[in-house]
Design brief:
The chain is an all-alpha fold. It is 65% helix and 1% strand. The C terminus is likely disordered.
Length: 1243
């Protein structure tokens, strides 16, 4: 029987490797995982097979089967004897202390059985087999980690460490990766129980002595694998392999555990356990092991040969471990002296890394990372006390002045990885210097004075190096900083890597100014003026020299703007304190220098004013050059123009809009700078609109400056007024080549400058141009004009107020030129479909989805600004236009389209979802006074109806766009939650719906209602064990449309094994918002007037069972608190509270709901023994009884206005009392699922 089973398994694995039979074999192997005897099959195959591939797949089978059936496994298999010394081995044992004769040893656990097998046969296994076996054992140990006594946990680590060195190293690496890693362990952990158990086990492991024991054992292996004399030719006694460097798995275990225990961020602030404090007390010994191992690996790597790459990787990992140790916070050490000794040992031991040549990229990277972490953990004073600060300054200056890498001869390009590493080294060193600067304000004067010359040297090197690399990049063949032009997302804004470098350097310039060394800022101003003169007045005649000068000016403009002003994202930035005149309290440093110039140097405010004038002069000179020689002249660089306009825009937010004029020379200087800025921006827009970067920078500058020239800001001089008038009178077609957001910024600026009434003529011109282009819409040129007009109009329409009625009417007429099409059967408002909608649909079908996107964005921004001021008739027009837009978007999505248009179509859907959300702000009750008379004008439809119809019309487009932008699914779910929260009275699940009072609108049609509820169920239960329950919980009365997706098959294995497969991508805040919507729905259904008992019962039967299953499975709340489902202080508490608030009215809706929930839970949690199933049933019954008792004691009974407002105080009291009951239920249910014994054999 055993031989036949092994042979069949080997046949399946062999078939898996053949393309023609791979699919069938894969399905058969997956079927094996579902068999009740899957664990036994794996235990048969692993020791008996001679096929490495079969053993690999058998280990995987054991891992998956054991974890998915964990509660049903015998206790001895889960966490019996963890070690391998006393267990029944396979082909031999391992040296160890013999067990005492009585009592007999406990039976081996699965992981202990695997460890015994490894001890006996590990030397004969291939690396792939060994890794699979070890990781399976480590995964099982991780799952059992929280369920066994701490002594057993420590025994498992000791048993692994006692293996022979060739096996102990990979075994420790497997433990580190599974217990402390963040890659493969997270990827293989499923949602729910397994992921929850991994998170909890990881936290306990890292805080306990087991992680310290892992590091100690790995360090012993690293030491044993290092030759006695670093660089020696032979192997030491502990290095039997003779490689001459530490074993890579031991190094990986050491680095993984150290990095997880002491992350670069603040991490766990609790004091380390005693074993860790013992390790840190002898950290010098650990650092010695790391340094010696890295040096030995470097020697092997320098010799070349097959082991060179492996040795190089080992050296890199060991140096990274040194950086981790250097970055351990001081409070973790047993004493201050130990912390200082560790810092000094790390910095002095790594000093040679900073002296490495340019070709030694690995050493230079390690040195930069080491200093960044050390400075962040210890601060300037301690670093200075170590005596290593001068060496750091010398190294930084050297690295910053290194010439850019040169391509090798023969036409081969630069190595991209080395190129990026070269830039990263400089960035990291500058970041470390900026951290020292940030800490300098809190140090004493002597330390700051010692640090000041170093900062000045670094700044000079930074500027020189940046200009050298810019000139080299302009010459071609080399790249200046490896990553210039790349962009990264930070807090919702795109920020170039180059800008981040400038902001880091700016912190050093400001520190220099604050401590009396403002000559650095003055020198920067002089350098910028010199370079601008070379470019704009006496430009080089050779192309290489001209390009180098242009790049130098571009770099200096970005750096100068960063020095003088913050980016001001989301707020108006203030003048940096270092540059404020003394009367304002500026320039006073906490270290006592007071910002006074050293040795008669330039005062900080004067230096800042000089740098400001240099930037304004650069923008003025660039505009004059283009005016004199034309935009196509060789000297007219778009990069320089965009950099100059961007720099002025950054300065304008700080110096040209508020009362900061004194910092740059007073009101006259402000007016002069404003005039220069407006003139340069208008000239760029009217003369260089074909250059997108220049046009975007110019429009952004005008948008920033506009408030300074508004109606309330005083009149501008004739030159500035003429410039604004030129912009207002420009033909709309001139903006056809301008980026759409830039055109919107121009419209926004015009609206601000001219005000609501004065901008009406300009708006009328734009509307007329849009209507003309829309009426023809027969060519790309017309579509370009239409997009430009819509973008301009979007900017103008962002400003609304009492005087904006004319603009509002013009835009609505543009959107309502087609015959009327009602949104629903109530005849709400006689609204009409927009002509723009029809044109956008036709343009999209021709391959111009940007037209549809422009229309959607206009409608979205227009609604956001004007909806509160609209009359009922105006709102009805906008409502119908919104539904028409949604339908047109879906029609376009169904038509043939290019892949390149996907982004524009996704932007259209995103704007329409935002529009529908805005429409909810215009409730029909807002029109009560307007429609209460006898004029016969009906009120507009309820916004919930508009959103429901819009979502239904947009469904096809949304489905197609989610492939491009998955975030649109989340936007849809949040919109549905908002609709149901604000208008729960529109949902009636009765069959038929309950009659409505006279004059009230009927509930949503069944199809639209089910779409909303189906989306709600998908939000709550998709990718959780409750998905299958939700998909079958509809019952009668429409069922609630709870089509949660996923599922398939029984949910029991998913609850016991940790969820429905992959983790839910839904953020906890979105799930909590949907739970709040469900709570509002349930309260409204149970307190409606007149009563809706059938609707309340149907809603409860659709949502209560899957909600109970999700709570018991840990799918709600567990991922946020990372604990036992009790909520704690994390986000999970909010999610669990929202779930309790929803569950209370659902259980009160009908007496049978609790029983149905209990049945669903016991079915989903199978297989469990009868006592465990009974405990689950009792827990749910107690949950239902507690709901009734809590509601009765709080008096939370019926009555209510729309949204469940009646009896609100009593309901809130009942909800507060019910929340701890639900938390207790979650804990109890988890205990039953995790810890219940298996059912009796044959039951």
């Amino acid at each position: 029987m055993t031989g036949a089973m092994v042979a069949e398994f080997e046949r399946l694995v062999d078939a898996l490797l053949v393309p023609t039979t791979a699919a069938t074999a894969s399905a058969a192997l997956l079927d094996l995982e579902a068999r009740p005897d899957a664990v036994a099959i794996a235990q048969l195959v692993i020791p008996a097979t001679a096929s490495p591939a079969a053993r690999f797949h058998a280990c995987r089978l054991l891992r998956v089967a054991a974890l998915s059936r964990w509660p049903a496994l015998p206790a001895s298999s889960r966490y019996g004897n963890a070690g391998c010394t006393t267990e029944v081995g396979v082909g031999g044992g391992v040296r160890g202390n013999p067990p005492p004769p009585p009592p007999p040893p406990p039976p081996p656990s699965l992981r202990g059985w695997l460890l015994s097998y490894i001890a006996a046969r590990g030397g004969g296994l291939s690396p792939l087999e060994l890794r699979a076996t070890l990781h399976t054992a480590a995964a099982l140990a991780r799952r059992a980690y929280l369920e066994e006594p701490s002594a057993s946990r420590a025994g498992w680590v000791r048993a692994v460490a006692s293996l022979p060195a060739p096996l102990a190293a990979p075994a420790l690496a497997a433990i580190a990766e599974e217990m402390a890693g963040s890659g493969a362990a997270v990827a293989t952990a499923t949602a729910g129980v397994e992921r929850q158990a991994w998170r909890r086990a990881r936290g306990v492991f890292l805080r306990s002595g087991d992680s310290a024991a892992t590091v100690t054992a790995a360090a012993a292996l690293v030491h044993g694998g290092t030759p006695a004399a670093a660089g020696g030719g032979g192997a030491a006694d502990g290095d039997p392999s003779g490689t001459g460097f530490p074993p890579p798995p031991a190094v990986a275990a050491l680095l993984t555990t150290l990095s997880a225990r002491f992350p670069a961020a603040t991490g766990d602030l609790r004091p380390p356990a005693a074993p860790w404090r013992a390790v840190l007390a002898d950290v010098a010994g650990l650092l010695g092991v790391l340094f010696r191992g890295a040096a030995a690996a470097d020697v092997v790597a320098s010799r070349g040969g097959p082991a060179a790459d492996i040795a190089s990787g080992v050296a890199t990992d060991l140096r990274s471990a040194v950086a981790v140790v250097a970055g351990i916070r001081r409070s973790a050490y047993p004493s201050a002296a130990a912390a200082e000794a560790a810092l000094a040992a790390a910095l002095k031991g790594a000093a040679s890394w900073g002296d490495a040549p340019a070709s030694a990229v690995g050493l230079r990277v390690a040195y930069a990372e080491l200093w960044e972490r050390a400075v962040a953990a210890h601060g300037l004073a301690r670093v200075a006390a170590s005596g290593c600060l001068p060496h750091f300054g010398t190294s930084v200056v050297t690295q910053l002045r290194l010439p850019p890498p040169v391509p090798p001869p023969g036409g081969a390009g630069l190595d991209e990885e080395e190129e990026l590493a070269d830039a990263a080294i400089r960035d990291t060193l500058m970041e470390a210097a900026s951290l020292l600067v940030a800490d300098a304000a809190a140090t004493d004067s002597a330390t700051a004075a010692e640090f000041r010359p170093l900062v000045l040297d670094i700044l000079a090197a930074f500027v020189d190096g940046a200009l050298t690399r810019a000139a080299a990049a302009a010459g071609g063949g080399v790249v200046g900083d490896g990553s210039e032009g790349e962009e990264e997302e930070e807090d919702g804004y795109d920020e170039s890597v180059e800008e981040a470098r400038f902001e880091t350097a700016a912190s050093l310039f400001r520190f220099a100014a604050a401590v009396g060394a403002a000559d650095a800022v003055a020198s920067l101003a002089s350098l910028l003026s010199t370079k601008c003169h070379q470019l704009f007045v006496s430009p080089p005649t050779d192309n290489a020299g001209l390009a180098a000068t242009q790049e130098s000016v571009t770099v200096l403009l970005g750096l100068a703007a960063a020095v003088l002003a913050d980016a001001g994202r989301g707020e108006t930035p203030s003048v940096p304190p270092a540059f404020l005149p003394p009367v304002h309290g500026g320039g006073v440093a906490a270290n006592g220098d007071g910002g006074a110039p050293a040795g008669g140097g330039t005062p900080a405010p004067d230096a800042a004013a000089a740098l400001f004038r240099a930037i304004i002069s650069a923008a003025r000179q660039e505009a004059a050059l283009v005016a004199a020689r034309g935009p196509h002249a060789a000297e007219a660089s778009p990069r320089v123009a965009a950099a100059a306009l961007g720099a002025v825009s950054r300065l304008a937010r700080t110096y040209l809009l508020g009362g900061a004029g004194d910092a740059i020379g007073g009101p006259a200087a402000v007016r002069d700078a404003q005039a220069a800025a407006v003139g340069a921006a208008v000239a760029a827009l009217t003369g260089r609109s074909f250059e997108p970067d220049v046009a975007a920078a110019a429009a952004g500058l005008l948008c920033v400056l506009a408030p300074a020239f508004g109606a309330d800001a005083g009149g501008a001089d004739a030159t500035v007024a003429a410039a604004w008038q030129t912009l207002a009178a420009a033909n709309v077609a001139a903006y056809a080549s301008v980026p759409v957001e830039a055109a919107a910024d121009v419209g926004n600026a015009l609206a601000v400058v001219y005000g609501e009434a004065a901008s009406r003529p300009a708006a009328a011109v734009i509307v007329a141009a849009a209507a003309a282009a829309a009426s023809s819409a027969s060519s790309d040129k017309d579509d370009d004009v239409l997009v430009a007009a819509l973008a301009l109009l979007r900017g103008v329409a962002r400003h609304a107020g009492p005087a904006s009625g004319g603009l509002r009417q013009a835009v609505l007429r543009l959107m309502a030129a087609a015959p009327a099409v009602a949104t629903d059967g109530s005849g709400g408002g006689g609204a009409t479909t927009s002509a723009v909608v029809t044109v956008s649909s036709a343009a999209s079908r021709r391959g111009r989805p940007d037209v549809a996107a422009a229309v959607a964005r206009l409608a979205d921004d227009f609604a956001g600004a004007h909806l509160a001021h609209m009359s009922p008739a105006e709102a009805a027009v906008l409502y119908t236009a919104a539904v028409g837009l949604c339908g047109a978007a879906s029609e376009a999505a169904a038509a043939a389209r290019r892949a390149a248009d996907a982004d524009a179509r996704a932007a259209t859907v995103g704007a329409l979802l935002s529009l529908l959300l805005r429409l909810l702000d215009k409730d029909a009750v807002d029109f009560a006074e307007d429609t209460g008379g006898g004029d016969g004008v009906p009120p507009p439809p309820c916004p919930a109806d508009v959103v429901a119809y819009g979502l239904d019309a947009l469904a096809a487009a949304a489905t197609a766009a989610e492939a491009t932008d998955p975030g649109l699914r989340l936007s849809t779910q949040l919109l549905v939650a908002e609709v149901l929260t604000r208008h729960p009275e529109r949902v009636d699940l009765g069959d038929p719906p309950a009659p409505v009072p006279r004059g009230a609108s009927p509930p949503l049609p069944t199809a639209l209602r089910d779409r909303l509820l189906g989306t709600l169920a998908d939000t709550l239960f998709a990718d959780t064990p409750a998905a299958a329950v939700a998909s079958h919980a509809g019952g009668g009365g429409g069922g609630g449309g709870a089509s949660g997706g996923g599922g398939g098959g029984s949910g029991g294995g998913r609850i016991a094994g940790g969820g429905g497969g992959r983790p839910s991508p839904l953020p906890s805040a979105a799930r909590r918002r949907s739970l709040e919507a469900l709570s509002v729905l349930a309260v409204a259904a149970t307190t409606a007037t007149p009563p809706r008992p059938a609707s309340a019962a149907a809603l409860a039967s659709a949502f209560a069972p899957p909600l109970v299953v999700a709570l018991a499975a840990g799918a709600i709340g567990a991922d946020e608190d990372g604990g036992d489902g009790s909520g704690g202080d994390g986000g999970g508490g909010g999610t669990l509270d929202a779930a309790a608030d929803a569950l209370l009215p659902l259980l009160l809706a009908h007496p049978s709901v609790a029983a149905a929930a209990a049945t669903a839970l016991t079915a989903a949690a199978a297989p469990l023994a009868a006592p465990a199933a009974a405990r689950l049933t009792e827990a749910v019954a107690l949950l239902g009884a507690s709901a009734s008792a809590t509601a009765a004691s709080a008096g939370a009974a019926g009555g209510g206005r729309r949204g469940g407002g009646g009896g609100g105080v009593a309901r809130r009291a009942a909800a507060a009392a019910y929340r701890p009951i639900v938390r207790r239920f979650v804990v109890d249910a988890r205990a039953v699922v995790l810890e219940s014994p298996p059912p009796p054999q044959g039951s």
